[in-house]
């Protein structure tokens, strides 16, 4: 798909004269919409179209602008990426489209609405986007330390899902807080397969479930789907309860085993922070001040890791 994008018009004459001073630059339709970031619709007719490598260069569609790679065709100068691509996602923090210059081998990627915007500007007739709402068929959630990973599977007839909204819920699905809609990279397929990583779950220690809503370009929303991320690894320890009193954290459960680590609110207590740990098959005691264990007043999310296997998560009120 990426290489077909070049065939369809994602090509640029930037840097050609720098590589070969005797060439006649093959200016492309895409180059007519390559400007400096100060571009706006008023200055568009007379704005500079950069043909040299380097600096900041953007694609401007009359409303929005997205950064472009600024190297020469031989991948020297500028950002050292060929100019017939979007700016590398590692530099802008967002995968602009399938014309990213450094797609990872073996990773599933799809075209985006930004790719389609460029093709529209180049003169292709695009199928209009309909008004069908997205839907989520199922979602898996996993909390590893402080990072919540969601694997989302759904569908959208129009392929125009662009945002999502998260809600953090307690064990009884009472809402603890929610995000504003934020951009996601769902591409444009009608079958949606998206992975989202969200940091900062240590700041919501009572959360054990997560709700998700998908949103399209017409602000149509899917029904919320809720996933439980409190489960542990297969064969791992099984926690039943925990309490902290008089400088002692006591955790009860099964298969606690050896080589055990204690995790509180996404933070694994080090041996120097909590040197006095006693473990049996059904009980763990940790003697340490609350700050050494990342304990806070109120709810605390507890997990243990034994022989590399994570237990389920439980919430302890301190």
- Based on DSSP secondary structure assignment, what is the total number of beta strands? 20
Number of domains: 3
Shape: elongated
The rounded Rg comes to 26 Å
Biggest sheet, open or closed, and with what strands and sense?
Answer: 5 strands, antiparallel
State mean pLDDT (0 to 100 scale): 93
Distance between the termini: 54 Å
Strand content: 25-35%
Please bin the fraction of helical residues: under 10%
Quick description:
With 318 residues, the protein is mostly beta strands. The protein has 4 helices and 20 strands.
Your description of this structure?
The protein is mostly beta strands and 318 residues long. The chain has three domains: 1-126, no CATH class; 135-228, Immunoglobulin-like (Sandwich); 238-317, Immunoglobulins (Immunoglobulin-like, Sandwich), CATH 2.60.40. 8% of the residues lie in helices and 34% in strands. It contains four helices and 20 strands. It has helices at 2-8, 16-19, 89-92, 113-122, and strands spanning 34-35, 58-60, 65-67, 135-144, 147-155, 161-169, 175-178, 182-183, 191-198, 209-216, 225-228, 238-245, 248-254, 260-264, 267-268, 276-279, 283-287, 299-306, 309-310, 314-317. The termini are far apart. 32% of the residues are buried. The mean pLDDT is 93.
Question: Helices, strands, pairings?
Answer:
Blueprint lengths: L1 H7 L7 H4 L14 E2 L22 E3 L4 E3 L21 H4 L20 H10 L12 E10 L2 E9 L5 E9 L5 E4 L3 E2 L7 E8 L10 E8 L8 E4 L9 E8 L2 E7 L5 E5 L2 E2 L7 E4 L3 E5 L11 E8 L2 E2 L3 E4 L1
Antiparallel strand pairs: 1-2, 2-3, 4-5, 5-9, 6-7, 6-8, 6-10, 10-11, 12-13, 13-17, 14-15, 14-18, 16-17, 18-19, 18-20
